[in-house]
Amino acid sequence: MKSQLRHLIAEALYPTKSYNLPSVCERYGLATGSSDEAFSSKTRYVMSRLEGLSDEKVFEIAKAVIQEFPDDKLVAAVEKLRADGHLVSDISRRHLMPAFNGIPLAGSLSLIEFLREHCPELDQASSYYAFQSRADDIVRHAVRNDDWSNSEILEYLGFLVWSQTRLFSFIESCVHPIRRTEAEQLTLVENINPILRRDGFNLVKSAAISGYPTYTVAETTRSGTSPADQLISKSLISFDEAGVHQAWEKALERRGSDPEGAVTAAKTLLETVCKHIIDDAGGSYGDNDDLPKLYHTAAEHLNLAPSQHTEPLFKTILGNCHSVVGTLAGLCNKLGDAHGQGKKQVRLLPRHAELAVNLAGSVATFLVSTWNARKPPDASK
């Protein structure tokens, strides 16, 4: 990679006028030379001065060059070589492309103008037709006709090898409120975040423009999900993938980008788990039963009600579980997105949503594990 870096530096500096190249190279600590030498071959001029330098020195020069000449290939190479490099994997990039399918890629604005903002190669020569550009190809196959999906457009434009800086800029622009309604933004964020989280990134609300949210890709954890997330997911998907696990995934997806929605999803998760258990146990519940009532009914079927035990410590633990469920229900009713808010609305932060979602997931897992251990063999048939 570091030998390739020399060629990429030369490519990044190539647009520099020959008569300016010697002074530009000197700024980066390269040996002096004449403009005549640069006129002969700009690439050879730069390469000859880089060849005798150590890899470490070349890397330092590359980092300096991208500040003035942000060539995307050079930016991508520097990102991969950084000691603290934290990158979206090639696998995740392949999974990200289909996440953009099924929607207008540029939202309500011009596709070509949007792509031109992020893809300088758009106006390069066509890969298929003489005397045409890549922009012409996209107009032919994605504007005049519907031959190419969004993922095919992105792959054609080199999405898989873009620098991470460019990748994140593109994603953030895709979900910008100038392009989409708030509902469309949220749908796209929920498509993208499960993929980004695997590599430790997340689209999160960063600001607002005229009241409309904007999103930024932010670093979360190295693994993208915590061990607790994975354990809870494994438990809930085995219980009911279509209902319970779907509610859990929605809560996870919204933790960073939509705290109010995440709290509402956490409450829905617990309500769904409780109703499933009551149904499987042959019990009943009313249409208007709230979460605390549903939890109490499910707990009685599982022998988890505090009144069903005499050991003080165990009664305390089970009582605290009831308190947590009641508090989550109250938090959702007051601050979630299921109800209107007054002028003095308290805003939830992502860390508050993370706590609520993790508590809901832990309680749901405890209920599911208890039910799986105690249910009759034919309970769910």
Structural topology:
Layout: H1 2-13, H2 21-27, H3 35-40, H4 42-50, H5 55-68, H6 72-81, H7 90-99, H8 111-118, H9 134-143, H10 150-156, H11 164-174, H12 182-197, E1 201-209, E2 212-219, H13 227-254, H14 259-280, H15 291-301, H16 312-335, H17 350-374
Antiparallel strand pairs: 1-2
Helix pairs in contact: 1-4, 1-5, 1-6, 5-6, 7-10, 7-12, 12-13, 13-14, 13-17, 14-15, 14-16, 14-17, 15-16, 16-17
Strand order of the largest sheet: 1-2
Major sheet, described briefly?
Answer: 2 strands, antiparallel
Strand content: under 5%
- The outline comes out as elongated
Determine Rg (CA atoms, Å): 28 Å
Task: Name the average pLDDT.
Answer: 85
Query: What letter string, H or E per element, gives the SSE order?
Result: HHHHHHHHHHHHEEHHHHH
Low-confidence stretches: 221-228
Helix content: 55-70%
Domain count, please report it: 3
Cα end-to-end separation: 58 Å
Q: Count the helices. How many?
A: 17
* Secondary structural class: mainly alpha
Q: How many strand segments?
A: 2
